[in-house]
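quick q for whoever's on today - can somebody do inverse folding on this one?? i tried earlier but teh output was garbage lol. tokens:
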């Protein structure tokens, strides 16, 4: 039918231009990155679940962010490995939409979850005496649920706008499927709906935390130190995501730049943050680091 000709069932990802002999090397790099993501994030989640002392809002939210990181990495890296190993570029329509939906959800859910973390840290630093009364278990799960709901709703609306858009072509000029990459194949011009504003809320929350700590530092010299200690890991993760996002946006503004370079920058926020975040949490959070070392040491001595 004419409809099946307009809407291709199978897309073809342009992917990277891999020089002869480099496919295996790139496959090993992608595999190593994915294993680091799985192991690092897996250790963080397992330790938080096992250690009851870590059953607190901040660490529960870290678990949610870990799940988000795993979603993004799993949506892209396995197919990228298959591309390097076998040269396979084809992807069916439904898996393509699923990959695009997962990647966009990862991007937005990261922001909404960091927003929930900012709210939690704001209460902890600015209202320390009322923290446990405000951040109850119900409030914690509501914040996390709302973060996921807002992300999923935003992406569902984004995709719903262009669900029945006819496509003229099937070659996606990208490494993975995204809403924008698919819509470039549209037979007519389509308004791209971008999501803004979430990062402003996060930045404002951390600004208020630090502002409050400076104001109170004359009364309590330990408040400022506590503010920086409790927010450092969150701020580092937040800045890391924003830097990756800015690099992606800027790289696409230079038409003369190599297409492979642009594609590499476009997957930075998927391959770098999920691998580095567990290290950031482990280095900055003394409690989490101590718990990981304790359980690792216990396992080693138990085997001996």
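ok took a stab at it. sequence:
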């Amino acid at each position: 039918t004419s409809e099946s000709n307009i809407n291709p069932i199978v897309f073809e990802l342009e992917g990277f231009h891999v020089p002869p002999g480099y496919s295996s090397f790139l496959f090993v790099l992608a595999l190593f990155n994915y294993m680091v993501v799985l192991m690092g994030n897996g250790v963080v989640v397992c330790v938080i679940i096992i250690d009851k002392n870590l059953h607190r809002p901040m660490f529960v939210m870290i678990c949610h962010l870990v799940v988000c990181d795993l979603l993004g990495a799993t949506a892209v890296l396995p197919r990228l490995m298959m591309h390097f190993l076998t040269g396979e570029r084809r992807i069916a329509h439904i898996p393509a939409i699923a990959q695009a939906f997962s990647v966009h959800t990862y991007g937005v859910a990261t922001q909404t979850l960091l927003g929930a973390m900012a709210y939690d840290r704001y209460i902890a630093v600015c209202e320390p005496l009322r923290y446990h009364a405000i951040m109850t278990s119900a409030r914690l799960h509501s914040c996390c649920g709302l973060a996921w709901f807002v992300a999923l709703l935003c992406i569902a609306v984004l995709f719903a706008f262009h669900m029945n858009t006819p496509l003229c072509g099937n070659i996606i000029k990208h490494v993975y499927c995204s809403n924008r990459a698919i819509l470039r194949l549209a037979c007519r011009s389509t308004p791209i709906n971008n999501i803004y504003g979430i990062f402003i809320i996060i930045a404002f929350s951390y600004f208020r935390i630090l502002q409050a700590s400076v104001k109170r530092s004359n009364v309590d010299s330990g408040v400022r130190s506590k503010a920086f200690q409790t927010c450092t890991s969150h701020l580092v993760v937040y800045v890391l995501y924003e830097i990756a996002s800015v690099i992606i946006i800027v790289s696409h503004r230079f038409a003369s730049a190599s297409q492979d370079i642009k594609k590499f920058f476009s997957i930075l926020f998927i391959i770098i943050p999920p691998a580095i975040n567990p290290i950031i949490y482990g280095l900055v959070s003394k409690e989490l680091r101590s718990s990981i070392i304790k359980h690792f040491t216990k396992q080693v001595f138990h085997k001996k």
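fwiw Confidence is low (pLDDT under 50) at residues 1-7, 193-198. also The chain has one domain: 10-303. so keep that in mind when u check it
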